[in-house]
Amino acid sequence: MMRLTFGTLHIKENPCASLSSITVALCLLTLILMALRNRKSHHQHHHQQNSHLDHTKYPPPPGPTPWPLVGNLLQMGDQIHLSLTRLRLRYGDVFKMHLGSLTVVVLSGYTTIRQALVRQGEAFAGRPDLFTFSAVANGTSMTFSEKYGPAWMLHKKLCKNALRSFSQAEPRGSGATCLLEEHVCAEAAEMVEVIQEQAAAKGDMTGVDPVTPLVTSVANVVCALCFGKRYDYNDKEFLTIVHINNEVLRIFAAGNLADFFPVFRYFPSPSLRKMVQHIHRMNRFMERSIEEHINTFDKARGTCDLF
């Protein structure tokens, strides 16, 4: 602890407080630099747009006025769907928002969404270039890759053909119309039985949480399609993978500041690090399953063998 003397006034300086002040000052300086950079890129982007578009013929969509630095993030709230619904009532089915450094256009209504995703599907087929997405499979994931092109279209075609084979394949022994329906019906019956067993174990006075059986049932259908096998509801490895998947979805839903403010990409992110660890564990599980299918090839077993 240092002691500073100014005339007759004695002031004690706290090193922690000084460090906190420096940290706050650095954060403010970083935010100011970000604002200047975003403003410059924003003007450059608009200049490029102005050189190609006639704003009298193609006016930009309306939208709420953005705040400095954060844009419209503070207007989203905890229930994003309700916030977007309120904004739709004010600005219409097509409006613009600023989420940090990102500019997004929100589409609402059946007619508008059909026009974009069906009639102009190729123009809207890409994904946003988010920092979090790049952490999934090192940016090579078909689902989260922003690159739309021949390779993406080929993978999509292969997946569609593989899934179509299950929707057209004959069932193996039930009254279902196809193999896919057989898997779904069998898993639904198993789920109902598990819920009934849980209800009987707890008694009539307590309820049963159906979330875990539902998620496990859906995961088993996916595993049956991909790997040609289902897992027991008490299988520890399978339950671990289901839990990891839920955690990854939870982290995705919580959002990541690095997606909206690029400067945060250089700061440690415990949630992002945890998500990457979860994804690596899921990848190891799938790699073992793929290796098993390579060693015991059976083209009628599942999507993995078809690939």
From TrEMBL:
InterPro entries: Cyt_P450, Cyt_P450_E_grp-I, Cyt_P450_sf. The keyword Metal-binding applies. Belongs to the cytochrome P450 family. Keywords: Heme, Iron, Metal-binding, Monooxygenase, Oxidoreductase. One of its GO terms (biological process) is progesterone metabolic process. One of its GO terms (molecular function) is iron ion binding. This is Cytochrome P450 1A1. The keyword Repressor does not apply. SUPFAM superfamilies: Cytochrome P450. It comes from the Eukaryota. The lineage of its organism: Eukaryota, Metazoa, Chordata, Craniata, Vertebrata.
